[in-house]
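ok new one. same drill as before - structure tokens go in, u give me an amino acid for every spot. 252 of them this time. try not to just spam alanines like last time pls lmao
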């Protein structure tokens, strides 16, 4: 006979949890005593939480991830929609298939995760939905049409979720960091060099960190600390709004 899940601990879904921000968030929430379903296209079996493989560009996979969390943990208190990819290209050359994939993963997946987890977040009584939206949910940069459009959409999504969730004790926030030291940022360097006609060794200073007032990358653990705060009782008032940690980018 299958043992019923232990529902004594709070449970979270974290997407894009195999590396970067997602891994840092999953690690922090696990260390804070939560059961975490760590969802990724290529999950790390040695990573934090319970690894779960899913291609979140499909509706079926998002629903299945929610079902998996409920089957394993018996509850869902937190959803952290973090999974993301990037493509750097001028608009006239931007591949339509890359547009569709990025929008599916960065905007449609958070919507689907909210849709399918909503009943469980209501049952939690203090459900938390957090999207890792990026400062590019508030401002734009050239050559990133799909990413920036999706992140702007996510900021709008959490505003809607905050209004719908208020009467049920559910909060929704969009964490908007500047550039974070992640594989996603590191993989952009060659494409940015090509797009801006610069040597790769100059891209970090002249392109990536150029909008930052403080010329430093943000660490994944710093983003995880902000997410962890939003999940506490002290973070309950942060709903329907972007939470910005951008090294002074949007101060300009």
């Amino acid at each position: 006979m299958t043992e019923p899940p232990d529902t004594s601990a709070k449970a979270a879904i974290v997407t894009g949890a195999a590396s970067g921000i997602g891994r840092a968030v999953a690690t922090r929430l696990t260390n804070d005593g939560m059961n975490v379903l760590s969802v990724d296209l290529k999950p790390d079996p040695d990573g934090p939480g319970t690894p779960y493989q899913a291609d979140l560009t499909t509706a079926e996979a998002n629903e299945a991830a929610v079902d998996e969390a409920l089957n394993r943990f018996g509850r869902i208190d937190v959803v952290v929609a973090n999974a993301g990819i990037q493509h750097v290209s001028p608009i006239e050359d931007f591949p339509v298939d890359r547009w569709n994939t990025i929008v599916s993963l960065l905007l449609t997946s958070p919507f689907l995760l909210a849709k399918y987890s909503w009943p469980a977040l209501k049952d939690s009584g203090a459900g938390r939905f957090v999207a890792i939206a990026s400062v590019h949910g508030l401002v734009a940069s050239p050559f990133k049409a799909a990413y920036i459009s999706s992140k702007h959409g996510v900021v709008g999504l959490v505003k809607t979720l905050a209004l719908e969730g208020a009467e049920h004790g559910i909060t929704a926030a969009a964490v908007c960091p500047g550039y974070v030291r992640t594989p996603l940022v590191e993989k952009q360097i060659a494409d940015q060099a090509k797009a801006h006609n610069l040597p790769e060794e100059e891209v970090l200073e002249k392109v990536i960190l150029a909008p930052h007032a403080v010329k430093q990358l943000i660490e994944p653990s710093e983003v995880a600390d902000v997410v962890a705060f939003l999940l506490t009782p002290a973070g309950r008032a942060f709903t329907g709004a972007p939470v910005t940690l951008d090294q002074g980018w949007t101060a300009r």
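The chain is about 45% helix and 15% strand. and btw The mean pLDDT is 93.
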